[in-house]
Amino acid sequence: MHFDIHHAHPWDLSPREAVALQRRLAAEVREEPLAAPVETIAGVDVSVRGDRVQTAVVALRLPGLEVVDEAVWRGPVVFPYISGLLSFREIPAILPALERLSVRPDVFMTDGQGLAHPRRFGLACHLGVLLDRPTFGVAKTRLWGRYDDLGPEKGATAPLYDKGRVIGAAVRTRTGVKPVFVSVGHRITLDEAVALTLACAPKYKIPEPTRLAHHLSRKV
Asked: What integer is the mean pLDDT of 63-88?
């Protein structure tokens, strides 16, 4: 499946150049309602072993969460691990994996941050802006912002704040289990991203799209 790339740029950047690019592209992020109901959603996950990377994309159909397609791509790591610059390490491995899909998902879910990022441009934002497709992040840990206590029950949420602005939400996907952190990537609202996260997490803490992609990305 071919995806047009918007705002294309080189990947062999210095950390300072990467930060400057994030600040520039952050202005392209749009937080807006989905244009149509979501029928398919794809989870994206990247595993790194040494100097090699393996990306998996798993597309599911809602509401039943049946797997309709999956793709894997393996290649070299092209950018070092630097906190806040994860997208420069992972997206060069995500884009070729997406080309191997036979379906065009309505929405992408990433294992990482969107707006809940120090420069409001996490992995989900970067991928969404490049594809100009609805994208949001579901991270296992908090990178940025603060939140108040949320109830222990499944479905409980609490806004994630930074300097008075809501940049995401802590979301309890299982009763009594630590929350995940949901944030907008591009062309979706936070309420929609939270609702999709809960709709895709009937049993486990991690929603099915990224949970299945994670398992696939770690297969040898």
From this structure: 96
User: Residue 112 carries which DSSP code?
Assistant: S
pLDDT in tens, 25-58: 999 999 999 999 999 999 999 999 989 999 999 9
Q: Is the pLDDT of residue 159 over 80?
A: yes
Q: What is the pLDDT of residue 219?
A: 85
User: Could you give the C-alpha distances from 196 to 17, 28, 55, 162, 178, in angstroms and in order?
Assistant: 34, 23, 22, 23, 18
Task: Give the tokens for residue 129.
Answer: 């802006």
What pTM does this model have? 0.95
CA distance 160 to 120: 13
C-alpha span between 71 and 55 (Å, rounded): 8
- For the chain, which residues make up each domain, given as ranges? 15-217
- Token code pair at residue 147: 């939140």
Mean pLDDT to the nearest integer, 142-167: 95
15-217 folds as archaeoglobus fulgidus dsm 4304 fold (3.30.2170)
Burial of 150: CB neighbours in 10 Å, binned 0-12, 13-18, 19+: middle
Report yes or no: 192 and 138 within 8 Å, Cβ to Cβ: no
Unique residue bearing structure tokens 């520039």: 24
Q: Residues 54, 77: contact at Cβ < 8 Å?
A: no
Handedness of CA 109, 152, 62, 65 (dihedral sign): positive
- Say how far apart CA 139 and CA 162 lie, in whole Å: 17
